[in-house]
Structures are given as structure tokens and as C-alpha cells.
Amino acid sequence: MAILAENFFKERKYPFILTLLILLICVTLFLFSFNHTTSNAVAFYSVIQEKPPLNPSQASADYTANPKEQELPPNMTNVRFDWKLCEEPQNVDFIPCLDNFKAIKALKSRRHMEHRERHCPETSLHCLLPLPKGYKVPVPWPKSRDKIWYDNVPYSKLVEYKKDQHWVVKSGKYLVFPGGGTQFKDGVDHYIKFLEKTLPAIKWGKHIRVVLDVGCGVASFGGYLLDKNVITMSFAPKDEHEAQIQFALERGIPATLSVIGTQKLTFPDNGFDLIHCARCRVHWDADGGKPLYELNRILRPGGFFAWSATPVYRDDERDQKVWNAMVDITKAMCWKVVAKGHDSSGIGLVIYQKPTSSSCYEKREGNNPPLCENKDGKNSSWYARLDSCLTPLPVDGMGNLQSWPKPWPQRLTSKPPSLPTDSDAKDKFFKDSKRWSELVSDFYMNGLSIKWSSVRNVMDMNAGYAGSTYDSIMECQSSVTFNKLAGFLQATLKLIPSLLFADLPQLSLIYQFG
């Protein structure tokens, strides 16, 4: 037999069959080894991320909501999960912290919009919210600003409720957004120009970069400001204005669910360049002016509050009572009226400015409202009660009042005014920027197999200084039409806003550089 084998190799008979046999053996060994390794790796990743194994054929398995039973088992290949679709009332729009009906029912009062605030359940969902019937891949940006698939957000209440104000119109398979609004009788484009005409110092996209739109409706104001190189965070409560924030997000416009009730807004101090309210249904004079004190907290020194509502331009008794209350409260806050005007449709507007010096506070009689005492220096707002005091103007480590950020786009890469003056903080900030610039360029843009031009809404969690976000913008200005919440370059104003969640001192820096 040994002789036959020796002769076989010497005479080189059947070379193709021998080669094929060896190849099949190697492939079999490789596949066995690969499947064993990947099954363990996928199971380990799934447990760490608390997600189901990445196996498309596995529709369900035995998942338990008991935390003790979710601990990493010795044999990870046996880890199995069961993610079922949520049942009623956990429908397609269920939001655990806003649809906690048990907690809402137990509220002692709803006078201050307590029922619209967050009431998170003790346990989180362990089921998947279903997609709406007929759901389609969203309309791509920039077309999505003006129309979205009706089946993706199948609500028509606003179509009828606001039909005379042109918020949204149903047209066949689409919901169309003509750019109208309660105060946008000649269209939101005209209204935005009217604002800048009333106060030329606004300089959309250069001086004013970061805007908060209170009671935003379907967020057309913020959507059209993108064309002005302005990033707007729009918010409204989940109320009878059915799915307004869902409309905004489906359109690709940064928006979140929130309300000015008894708790602070989840934004850092001194963050926004301009705050806007167009018939936003907030009683600014309530509780002695607490809602206005909250705006004062998140508005940067020298920032503007643009208010367009009937008390500004109507003379009836009810509106004049509100206007007189606003005059008293804003005077006590040291806000001054810097512009007031009416447009061709009869809509009126007043613009206030927050002080840039503490001298006015010192000259007030009675010190009412008082300045807040923040002895520990914390910049906290999550689940914090509204203050009855004014947040002091921010100062740097030398005691100097903080300056206004540099004009955009220099603002993106310059040191934020709120950054501590010590060299360590400055070095940390620029090292973080450099690190993310390289990481985005080398990995995120080319290493994730993601077509970024088709991505619109991104949540950057634990954002730090938001380096991953704004460096993505810098990277993309020459490659794809791309933007995110931390910054919109003029050439890249068409595709991705990002909701940023971070520790508040760091988030404050994000707003500083826009």
C-alpha cells in the first residue's frame, strides 16, 4: 500500500481530485471553527448590550425580565431571548415616561401641566413597539421637510384641526407641510425674514446659531431655519395636538417632547442664542413668572427672546392684562425690549434681550426676584423644580463675565466661552476634538458601511464635548450633504441633526460652539 501511495505521488496521477479533496477538508475545518467562535461572540455581545442574538432566523427564545436571571451565564452559547411585540396600550406611539397612565391618574393636580411631564415607570419595557401598518422607508431629506408618508405617522387630526392655518395637509399617500402656522399667515419663510428685519442684529446663521422653539407645533420654524444655517431644538408636549413631534422627527427636524410645567427644561444654563415662542400657549406670567425665569436660565447673556402672541398686538382686556404682567416681570428680570414690530399680515412681535452685565440686578429695589444661590456650582435640570429666582450671569475663573461665542463657523472649532480658564481644561477640550476628528475620518465615515447621505436623525449618547458630532460635519462638507445638531456648515445644511445627551456641564459647551 505504501508503494502504491509512493507511486501515486511520483506519477502525479489525479492531481485535480487530490487538490479538491484537500481543499474540502480545509474548508470544513474552517467553517466548524468559525461557527463555534462566532456563536459565542454573538451571544456575549447580545448579553452585554441586552439585545437579542444577531440571528435573523431566530424569531424568539426564552428571555426573562428578571435581572438576576439576565446575568452572564457560564455557557454563553445557551443565552436566548424572547422579544415579543408589545400589546395594548403599548401601541406604536407608546412612550413609557409620558404614557404612564397609572402615575398620571394618581396626580393630585394638573393645573401646571403635571400630566404632560415625565413620570417614568419603575420597570422598563421588555417588548418591541410595532411599526404602523403600511410603514415605508422615510422620504429622504430635503424632500422630507415638505412631505412625509402618511402611513408612517397615520394621524389626520391636525389636518382638520389646523386646516385654516396650513400646518399640514393630507395629499394622497403623503402628509404635506406647506410652511404655514398660527402666526405664519404669509408662510414661515416670510416670518423668518420678518424677524431679522425687525432686529437686524439677529444675523441668522452668523450671530444667532442655536435656537430653542417653544411650543413648536410641527416644527416648520426650525425646519426652515436650516436654510439660514441655524440649528433649532423644537419642543412641544404630547397633547391634543396629535403626533406633532412625531411629524417633526419624521420630517428630519430636531425635536423633543417637553413642557414648561413644574420642572426645569432638560437643557444647561446659558445655552441658547435665541428662544422663540409663536402662540406657544405658555402662560409666562404664571406663578409670579417662573416660566420666564426658566427661559432666563437657559438663555445666554445677550441672548434674545422673540415672542409673537396676541398680547403683543391686540388691545382687548384679556390680552392687555397679560401684556402688563409681562412688562412687570421682564423689567424685574432686567430684560429690555430691543425691537417691536408688525408684519403685513397684522402679526405682532416683540423681542427682549437678556442683560450682559449684573449692574441692573444690583440697582433693583427689593431684589425681587432674588438671584439664585448655587453654592455647589451644579448645573442640573433633570427632574429639578422650577426656580423662584434668577440664575446669576456666568463668569470665568477670573471673575469676568463670559463673552458671546465667535461667529459661525469659527465658533465650531474655537474654545467655548464657558470652558474653564485653566490650561488642563483647554488641553482636554482640544485633545478630545483632535481625537474625534481622526476617529470620524478613519472609522465612522468609511469603516461602518453606512450611507451617511441617507441618514437624517442621530442620537449621540454620552456625547461629552460632542466631538463625534461636529467632526462628522467637518469631515462631510466635501464628501456628502451632511449635518448634525452640534453644527451645520453652510455647504452641508441638508441631512443629519443629532439629539445630544451628555453631562450638563459638557452639554453646555456643546451649545456654546453650536
SSE arrangement:
Blueprint (H helix, E strand, L loop, with lengths): L1 H10 L3 H35 L51 H5 L41 E3 L7 H5 L7 E3 L2 E3 L11 H11 L11 E5 L5 H6 L5 E6 L7 H8 L3 E3 L14 E7 L11 H9 E10 L1 H4 L3 H16 L3 E7 L5 E6 L5 H5 L46 H4 L9 H22 L13 E4 L5 H10 L21 E4 L2 H10 L1
Parallel strand pairs: 4-5, 4-7, 5-6, 7-8, 11-12
Antiparallel strand pairs: 1-3, 2-3, 8-10, 9-10
GO molecular function: methyltransferase activity
Pfam families: Methyltransf_29
GO cellular component, one term: membrane
Provide a compact summary of the structure.
This is Methyltransferase. By secondary structure, the protein is an alpha/beta fold. Helix content is 31%, strand content 12%.
Describe this structure in words.
The protein has about 525 residues and is of the alpha/beta class. The protein is built from 15 helices and 12 strands. Helix 13 (about 425-445) crosses helix 14 (about 465-475). Residues about 1-5, about 35-75 and about 470-510 have low confidence and may be disordered.
- The share of residues in helices is 25-40%
- Using only C-alpha atoms, the radius of gyration works out to 28 Å
Assess the beta-strand content as a share of residues.
5-15%
Number of helices: 15
Query: What general form does the structure show?
Result: globular
Average pLDDT across residues?
78
What sequence of helices (H) and strands (E) makes up the elements? HHHEHEEHEHEHEEHEHHEEHHHEHEH
Main sheet: strand order: 6-5-4-7-8-10-9
Structural class: alpha/beta
Tally of DSSP β-strands? 12
Distance between the termini: 81 Å
Would you give the CATH topology of the domain at 143-373 and 380-398?
Answer: Rossmann fold
Q: Class of the domain at 143-373 and 380-398, according to the CATH hierarchy?
A: Alpha Beta
CATH superfamily of the domain at 143-373 and 380-398: Vaccinia Virus protein VP39
Q: How would you sum up the major sheet?
A: 7 strands, mixed
* Secondary-structure arrangement, i.e. CATH architecture of the domain at 143-373 and 380-398: 3-Layer(aba) Sandwich
Q: Pick out the low-confidence regions.
A: 1-6, 33-73, 470-510
